[in-house]
Amino acid sequence: MRFQTASCGRLAALFIPTALALAACGGGGASDSSGGGTTSPSTALTLTGTAATGAAIAGKAVEAKCSGGNGCATSGADGSFAITIAGGATLPCLLRVTAADGTVLHSAAAGSGLTAKANLTPVSELVLARVAAGAPASYFGSFDATAAAALSSARLQAAVSAVVDTLKQAGVDFSTVGDVLTGTLVPTNGAMAGNAMDQALDALKARLTSSGTTLAMLIDTVARSAPDAPPTALNPVASLPADMLLKPAASNCSALRSGRYRLVANDDPNTVPGGTNTATEVVTIDATTLTVTNSDNEDATLTAAGTCRYTVPNGGGMSVTPAGVVIAQIDAAPRRGAVLFPKQSHAVAELAGEWNAISLDRTADNAPIHLTTMTATIDASGKLTSGQHCDAAVSACQTLSGSNVSDISIKLNTAGGFDFVNATDRYTDRLFAYRAGGGEMMFVVLSPGGHITFATRKVARTLPAIGDLSLGWQIALVANLQAPFYTSPAAISQFRSTVTSLDAAAGRYERSAVLDFTSNATRPETLAINSPRDGYLRRLPGTVTASNGSTSTLSEWAGLPLRGMGMTAAGILGNNQLVLSASQAQ
Known about the structure:
Layout: H1 10-15, H2 18-24, E1 45-50, E2 61-67, E3 69-74, E4 80-85, E5 90-98, E6 104-109, E7 115-117, H3 122-132, H4 136-141, H5 145-150, H6 153-169, H7 196-211, H8 215-224, H9 242-245, E8 249-250, E9 253-257, E10 259-264, E11 280-286, E12 291-293, E13 299-301, E14 303-304, E15 309-311, E16 317-320, E17 326-330, E18 336-342, E19 353-361, E20 370-378, E21 384-390, E22 397-399, H10 403-406, E23 408-412, E24 418-422, E25 427-435, E26 441-447, E27 451-457, E28 469-479, E29 486-487, E30 493-503, E31 508-516, E32 521-529, E33 537-539, E34 542-545, E35 551-554, E36 557-562, E37 567-572, E38 577-583
Parallel strand pairs: 1-7
Antiparallel strand pairs: 1-4, 2-3, 2-5, 5-6, 8-9, 10-11, 10-18, 11-12, 12-13, 14-15, 15-16, 16-17, 17-18, 19-20, 19-27, 20-21, 21-22, 23-24, 24-25, 25-26, 26-27, 28-29, 28-30, 28-38, 30-31, 31-32, 32-33, 33-36, 34-35, 36-37, 37-38
Helix pairs in contact: 3-6, 3-8
């Protein structure tokens, strides 16, 4: 197979006769045959479609890159084009057009036969980002025999479905206007109004503007959330997923968007509908009015208390990370700690990989709840294949083996999320996953036995840079022997620190952390990366002198920064508290 860069101008003139070069993009139906020779029309490949962003993209070169040949045509006044490629060209093909404002759009056609249709729109650009799990421009540029063999009709349609579903969740519905790639698109052209698909494109443009999101931001987010995105393409910087980027934001927090959120906590089993021991529900947040509506249709109003910071009606606090993850104190005294994140659906296979976890856990029936950590590998079927469990968070580790591994599996739960099943010990936990805008995923597990677990993909940490600033808000979960298992009695508190020095050889760094926000007194703290294992962070214990001359004692903690979430779960080893911190956008 030959994969040539499609050209409608200078390059075409170099390789084909002048008369053909002039005809190549001379009109909506003109074509460029780069296969050479004379070919019967019955063996030529014809691509048609419409290029539009809402308004027609008129008079612009539409390039096609196919197996065995390439071609181009100039779009008509209504954005329509037809490209005929002789010389044995076959599907699949990629297409490209550059609008008058410089926006470059791509599309694709797959399958078999000698005719195909592929509209070029901002939605087709999102579809290509999903297929490529990267930038559509790079995918177009490197399209070769290997990429062509992988671009089946089924794969393309799966990407179409995923993008249409994402946009529908954001309030822009393309599901009723026909196939976004092959359906009828009549764009606005002068006084002529566009059809339903064109109106949906206008709605998408308006939603991008009102949400403060650019098409480039949306494309990047869709690409990183694609199932085929390699770990190296994921971005650990906290950001919102694609559908949330298009939703209305709170006036004091661009990360708090309207939508449905999964709330996870732990509660008295007698008060939870259905008799389950795990407290979870889906709540609706109206970010513009700061109203939270629970599953019983009861409303609560948040009060803004700073950037991405709120007071809840019971007097507790709430803070939102740049990825839209919320830490909160709910209910009246004793307040419980809770985590909320935008509701998503995932396949079991998306959990495949090696994970780090930190828990408040019971490791024996009726035993005290205490801090533990675990590293485990999950396969694409949801089976646990290996792991290491540390009963004291940083020590007392053992390798999981035998029935501890083979009988543990993850299965979809029709009520949302997953079941985490241990067939040997006969327990079933609930597991909920969330993928942020950079493609990184976390999951939270709630257990009837009285534990809560936070997990993130295992990746070795690197040292920060001198001057790096960390700030935000945090709550502490206190373990109890009786329900409610975890309370958060202390008020939400602020944190801020600045990296002051590095010790690369020891894998440690020192930071200056604010001890008292009234006086701004600080104290030095030493943190070790990849301790106790890769991906974790540990604060070393000791006694230090604060900037105001006072003596300050540092308790030891083991922390697990949740990649891409702007959140860290840190276990205080001395008192079995689990501190949840939400980073503030800077």
